[in-house]
Every structure is written in structure tokens, then in C-alpha cells.
Design a protein that fits this description.
The protein is α+β, with helices and mostly antiparallel strands. The protein has helices at residues 10-13, 38-43, 100-114, 118-136, 140-155, 159-170, 185-226; strands spanning 2-4, 17-20, 27-34, 48-55, 61-72, 75-85. The protein has two domains: 2-85, no CATH class; 95-224, no CATH class. The chain contains seven helices and six strands. The chain has a six-stranded antiparallel sheet. Strand 5 (61-72) and strand 6 form a beta hairpin. The longest helix is centred in the C-terminal third of the chain and has 42 residues, at 185-226. It starts with a strand and ends with a helix. The structure holds zinc ion. Residues 21, 23-24, 26, 55, 57-58, 60 line the site of zinc ion.
Length: 227
């Protein structure tokens, strides 16, 4: 893509990117709606530029960042393979079925994960686990550990990774302990799935059954009053 001295937008318009929209979470094409102006990029000698696109599905703005390089006096190249999404889609989860403290901690963990801050994500997972222990009472830690052990085999997690992630979730008291093992993207992906499974099995499943039972009870009560 190029920014020409006449600011003609064709080369940017004609290059299509497909992303998962951070607003509507749909996998969709985006269309450029705001393109850096040649004279400003030249004047400030910008090495990086942003292009604002619209999501073709929900029309919300989506920003992409690129490196810029001068090709000749009338052309600045936008280097396509340096593309970075400025705002990433947030991983979602059924937080409304969780106790408030657990939901708030895990919501923040998901924000860290979505922004690729994997060590902050791990620290917030630990904090989520501590809130779970408080909610679940005396048996909390044992139940979480049992659930982790249960999912290890079917998920095919290797022993080293498993022990390391288990240490993050179960050990210590400080949510942001400086001696927490370092978490990269590969480990963060597994940690996310472990946390989702534990939260689902220990909170959400029973909350959904309770909700369904309550709905059924209300339906029956309603029918009785109608008769
Ligand atoms: Zn969208």
C-alpha cells in the first residue's frame, strides 16, 4: 500500500484485511475510511502510521498500525506485513453465572489475555483462584485441584506444563508474586482453558441447573394459578 503525494487512496482501499472485529467479534473484512495524509507523514517523518478502517459487519472503527518507508519523493510505502491490530477482541465467558469477586477477577484476567499481557493474565488467574477458594470454603483448594487433575489427561497437557500451571493456580498467597513462573502465549492458551474448565465445572454448571429448576418451578406455579 502507498501514500502518494496526491493522497489518492486507491492502493489502501484496494487492499483488504480480514480480522476478528474487537466490537462485534465477527470474523469479517474491513474497509479503510481514514488514511494518513502524505504531507503530514512527510513533515513529521513518521516511521509508523495508523489506518482507520470500519468493520464491514458493525461499522465500528478498527485501527491497524503499520511501518512506513519512503520509496521515492512522491511515495511513502505502508509496509503491509508489519500490520498490527491496535485493539484486539476480548475473550468472552459466562461471567454472569460466577460469584461477584470471582467474576471481577476473571474479567480482568480476560482483559490481560486479550491484550497479550500473559504474565498479568497469570497473576489475575491466581487472584481468581483465591476468590474461588474463599467462595468454596474449606474444601475449595482440594476441589479446584481435583478438577485440574481430571482435565489434564483428556486435554493431553504434558507433565511439566501442567505442574507449572498448577503452581500458578494453587500455590502461594500473593496475586502478583514475583516468583511466579513466566508465562508465554503457548502456556497462556492452556492456562485459559484450565481456568475456564474449573470455573465451569465448579460454578457455572450448578448455577445453570439451579436456574433451569427455578424456571420450571415458576412455570408450574404459573400454571396452577391459571387453572
Ligand atoms: Zn464489528
Amino acid at each position: 500500500m502507498r501514500i502518494n503525494s496526491d493522497n489518492h487512496p486507491t492502493s489502501v482501499f484496494d487492499r483488504h484485511f480480514k480480522i476478528t472485529c474487537p466490537h462485534c467479534l465477527t470474523s469479517t473484512n474491513i474497509t479503510a475510511v481514514s488514511i494518513p495524509r502524505y504531507e503530514l507523514v512527510s513533515r513529521f517523518e513518521l516511521r509508523k502510521v495508523g489506518v482507520c478502517y470500519m468493520c464491514n459487519n458493525c461499522k465500528e472503527p478498527v485501527f491497524l498500525r503499520f511501518e512506513a518507508a519512503r520509496v521515492d519523493p512522491s511515495n511513502i510505502q505502508i509496509v503491509e506485513n508489519t500490520v498490527e491490530e491496535v485493539e484486539l477482541p476480548k475473550v468472552t465467558f459466562e461471567l454472569n453465572y460466577l460469584p461477584l469477586e470471582v467474576a471481577e477477577a476473571f474479567d480482568e484476567a480476560l482483559t490481560c489475555y486479550s491484550n497479550q499481557c500473559y504474565n498479568a493474565f497469570a497473576a489475575m488467574c491466581r487472584r481468581t483462584a483465591q476468590s474461588m477458594f474463599v467462595e468454596l470454603g474449606a474444601e475449595g483448594k482440594t476441589r479446584v485441584e481435583a478438577q485440574l487433575d481430571e482435565v489434564k489427561e483428556p486435554a493431553g497437557i504434558d507433565e511439566e506444563t501442567y505442574q507449572m500451571l498448577k503452581q500458578i493456580i494453587l500455590s502461594g498467597h500473593d496475586g502478583a508474586h514475583p516468583h511466579l513462573p513466566k508465562v508465554n502465549i503457548e502456556r497462556a492458551v492452556i492456562l485459559l482453558e484450565l481456568m475456564k474448565d474449573v470455573l465451569y465445572q465448579l460454578f457455572i454448571r450448578s448455577a445453570k441447573i439451579r436456574e433451569a429448576t427455578e424456571l420450571r418451578r415458576q412455570e408450574i406455579a404459573q400454571k396452577k394459578t391459571e387453572n
